[in-house]
Q: What sequence folds into this?
């Protein structure tokens, strides 16, 4: 009954909520520190919480499907036209639209990068091409151009590794790529990268002049709305109008729409989160130096630390109620830790120092 | 750059929010009566509102992607196993998974039925087969079996028409269809239909014995959570495990997950909504009889009324702040009105009686 392509796909097994697993070790929910999904440890803006609370009686009502207000706010923020914007249920969904719209035979990405590129590409049976390095190495991308990818993914900065290319270098690369190849620039952590180093900053309006660039951004990270599933794509009208053809109506919730609109009006919360993030990140870097652990300089809200045995270490941390991401699945003997609040990080250092 | 299939697709143009249009006529938001999208006019359960309000500080946190609690609650309600359940961002998304999983060459549906069947099927370039009648006529479906559809859609009860087949008749039909053809039974309005007439009731557990039946349900209608985008599919493990391969992680929001779990614990709200719906529907039927308007007996929360000129009438209603669905796009000279609250319906009758 089902398409043959499904046979090659493995089911994404979420398993029991990790909180339940931790509770099996007798740890109280309030004592669990989850630093595994790069959520904003400062939560989200109080203004957003207030405004969303006010409209819980509107949960029965479909959202405004034109997403007029949200697009207005994004247009203003990025100095682009509303016709250059598409909203997705997370930027994931914009990636999904793009992949289904192009139906690529081959896609190209860094060896270690955001898992959904490969997952969505496999949904339509595309061949996955990867560069050799875990980092984005543009020379390796150049070499692979002769394999004729239809889509190239650049994750800037790169999840789950943390590094980030300079925009100048990316722009040179873009100019070497055939105009018929769609280049997707995933800027999920751009707010962090551009704060740390202006050379990493991508201005979405600068990509509009290219025929073949799609920029994606999200409210899940710096804006602290990971649970609300709102992201966006920015590109020229030709690209956006094509992606729009595959967008299901009402693809974000009524409360998510409100949350993201209000979030854009409270940049102070975002800036404060980012500032704190890098103050706390310094503590992780110092911890690593003290302990002689190799880490990757990060332009995000997480840090990737190489360890002796990442699987053993993550398990040991789990038993203490600290949830981190084991990167063994990416063939990296490393753990990825979301930078938490001062209090959370204190606890992490206290426990981690006994283990490494 | 884009797949050729896109050329045949038209963009879903949401346009300006209809509330803005009405405001252009100088009508205050509080005076607008929107009876166009079959939302629950009683909103959603107060318990749901309370519980969602309590977790607005959790908007930064991704939902439990196993959806353990929600599946537990649905399993209990429908006496099925959690492996028989998949959750979608609205039942729409479950339909989308099914269509992408089967990749049908041809799909079969009633002439007038839920628009998304055709839209999603076109996304993958399928040929659309339709029966002649606007109603579901199983003999017409039988005739079309020789055209070899890969998916058959049955909308029970049928949106936007309102009629509903008896389960006994549907079951006979199922047994005549080749086991390799996926039959999707869309039960978005089942809570209403089964309340009105037990012959219309579909027990999802009864479909598990068939190799090829997928049942879909939603929280958007009787449960009053249209804005929260939560639906579900129920089928045998073979079907569900295949659909699961195409499910993106975190496909509903943290607040939607909470809302739907709590909604299932407040059946009193649902029953009260349904009871009121049919009390008020009687008033529409009586109004139609008085005015000599033909209407379709409805098993849903809306009523389809044939009029002299549905486009003119919907426009006239719009100018008075009443938003209904004009079915001219479905080639029916009729309007579809969601059954509102007593107060809303009073206003509708007051205005409508001067127009028809």
A:
């Amino acid at each position: 009954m089902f398409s043959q392509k499904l046979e090659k796909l493995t089911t994404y097994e979420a398993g029991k909520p990790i909180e339940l697993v931790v509770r099996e070790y007798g740890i109280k929910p309030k004592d669990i520190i989850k630093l595994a999904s790069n959520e904003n440890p400062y939560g989200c803006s109080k203004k957003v919480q207030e405004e969303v609370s006010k409209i819980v009686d509107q949960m029965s009502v479909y959202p405004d499907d034109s997403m007029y207000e949200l697009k207005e706010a994004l247009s203003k923020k990025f100095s682009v036209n509303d016709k250059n914007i598409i909203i997705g249920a997370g930027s994931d969904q914009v990636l999904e639209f793009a992949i289904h719209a192009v139906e690529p035979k081959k896609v190209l990405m860094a060896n270690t990068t955001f898992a959904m590129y490969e997952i969505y590409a496999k949904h339509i049976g595309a061949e996955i091409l990867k560069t050799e390095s875990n980092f984005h190495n543009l020379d390796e991308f150049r070499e692979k151009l002769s394999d004729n990818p239809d889509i190239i993914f650049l994750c800037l900065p790169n999840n789950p590794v943390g590094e980030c290319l300079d925009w100048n270098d990316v722009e040179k690369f873009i100019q070497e790529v055939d105009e018929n190849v769609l280049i997707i620039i995933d800027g999920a952590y751009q707010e962090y990268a551009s704060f740390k180093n202006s050379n990493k900053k991508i201005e979405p309006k600068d990509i509009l002049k290219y025929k073949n660039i799609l920029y994606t951004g999200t409210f899940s990270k710096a804006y602290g709305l990971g649970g609300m599933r709102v992201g966006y794509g920015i590109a020229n009208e030709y690209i956006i109008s094509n992606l729009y053809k595959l967008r299901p109506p009402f693809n974000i919730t009524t409360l998510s729409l409100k949350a993201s609109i209000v979030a854009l009006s409270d940049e102070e919360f975002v800036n404060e989160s980012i500032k704190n993030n890098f103050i706390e990140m310094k503590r992780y870097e110092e911890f690593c130096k003290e302990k002689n652990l190799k880490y990757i300089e990060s332009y995000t809200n997480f840090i990737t630390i190489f360890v002796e045995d990442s699987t053993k270490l993550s398990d040991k941390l789990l038993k203490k109620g600290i949830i981190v991401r084991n990167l063994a699945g990416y063939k990296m003997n490393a753990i990825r830790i979301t930078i938490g609040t001062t209090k959370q990080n204190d606890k992490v250092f206290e426990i981690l120092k006994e283990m490494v």
